[in-house]
Write a structure and sequence with these properties.
alpha+beta, 2 domains, 5 helices, 6 strands
């Protein structure tokens, strides 16, 4: 990839090395990770979250126990999402997207709880199911 600090002043120039034309692109996929000319990882994180959603929602949710779903989340879905995260320079919005994805998956795994006093079904708050999850959250694993 050819990059330049002058983003607006240059013409779309291709490079020629030994009679082979190397096209100038803004992004490309290398070893499963997207590399962009701006070195941003926001698009990479979006792609990873889409892949994680595809993995999670391909599970037959009624047929699998909660314990097995958590095991699948830790061993299959988290590695799909966090592939190459060692080189990411995250922003707060990227961290928020990862946290929202994790909360959504955990909320789906644990499901609603029946209130002890009222008997009504309610959603668990984030702190409650993170206490139930008993493992590091996605941001701590990255760090």
């Amino acid at each position: 990839m050819i990059t330049s600090r002058n983003t607006g002043n240059e013409v779309n120039k291709n490079t020629i090395i030994r009679d082979v034309i190397i096209e100038k692109v803004n992004k490309f996929k290398h070893l499963g990770a997207y590399i962009t000319s701006k070195n941003g990882v926001t698009e990479e994180i979006k792609i990873r979250l889409v892949s994680g959603n595809a993995c999670f929602y391909s599970l037959p949710s009624q047929l699998i126990s909660r314990k097995l779903k958590l095991k699948i989340y830790r061993t299959v879905i988290l590695p799909v999402i966090l592939y190459g995260c060692e080189s990411w320079s995250r922003t707060l919005s990227d961290e928020h997207k990862l946290r929202v994805f994790e909360n959504k998956v955990l909320r789906k795994i644990y499901g609603p709880k029946r209130g002890a006093t009222t008997g009504e079904w309610r959603r668990l708050h984030n702190e409650k199911f993170h206490g139930l999850y008993n493992s590091l959250d996605v941001l701590r694993i990255m760090k």
